[in-house]
Amino acid sequence: xxxxxxxxxxxxxxxxxxxxxxxxxxxxxxxxxxxxxxxxxxxxxxxxxxxxxxxxxxxxxxxxxxxxxxxxxxxxxxxxxxxxxxxxxxxxxxxxxxxxxxxxxxxxxxxxxxxxxxxxxxxxxxxxxxxxxxxxxxxxxxxxxxxxxxxxxxxxxxxxxxxxxxxxxxxxxxxxxxxxxxxxxxxxxxxxxxxxxxxxxxxxxxxxxxxxxxxxxxxxxxxxxxxxxxxxxxxxxxxxxxxxxxxxxxxxxxxxxxxxxxxxxxxxxxxxxxxxxxxxxxxxxxxxxxxxxxxxxxxxxxxxxxxxxxxxxxxxxxxxxxxxxxxxxxxxxxxxx
Length: 337
Fold this sequence. Notes:
It is elongated, with a radius of gyration of 21 Å. The longest helix is centred in the middle third of the chain and has 33 residues, at about 135-165. The strands form three sheets. Strands 8, 9, 10, 11, 12, 13, 14 and 15 form an eight-stranded antiparallel β-sheet that branches. It has a six-stranded mixed β-sheet with strand order 1-5-6-4-2-3. It has seven helices and 16 strands. It has about 325 residues and is an alpha+beta fold. The protein is about 25% helix and about 30% strand. The model is unreliable at about 1-30 (pLDDT under 50). Helix 4 (about 135-165) crosses helix 7 (about 320-330).
């Protein structure tokens, strides 16, 4: 077991279709597995000390510790913890996200293997097999998006699973009546506002707000309406009307500091346009990151936008945004004929 591993190069959130998944789950063993350890957003890297301190470790940190996109302050995409293969004992085997390096001349089947719930649950273990350093670098480059997608989706799945255990069930019928679909919300979230075409659900403490906007509007059924300009224009129009600021005449809008970006993705057969950007309040000094999913209703007559945002001026925001963004992935259509 030797050198390099993992890479990133993608924004936070990639669909997992196409991954070659190797599952270690079975009904008997699953019940015996201990719970995972480690913090959310943390990755344990099993790598030789010389490689960690050399070019492999430097390149690994360059990618996995790259700035998380669309956060006001610089925060790494992941927090890395490294351990040598010799020190990789039972305690470390319980970590939530593990990357194992296997680089040696005896590797006959190079590539990336994804295993779930190998030593704990819910756990993701990624093994990179390569017969040489050069082959390892190529494998990592070829599989970067899938590796990051697997890590991101596993973090989301953990949030959703935990939310279902401690769900604010009174919000379920509100969303279902409005959209025809369901979402899960953790205990503590509450309905802040509901109008004919808009819902605002949030969790608020003294210094942190994690919120969800849900709104809908008639679909024009053209390519432009799922472009970033059209989505942002509709967002600004809706929030100016529905989300006032603390001061008279102030309202939430899209910040011009950094132009929002759009990505087209799918999850559980729901295709959507994902927009990331910054929000601020016109006429006030508030702001933060947001991410939205915009998609057609099953009949194609309307567009629905579900958006997650964070306001946490005193704290890092990576964890808060991942938590609330994960809720977007819990959306499911209730009944589709």
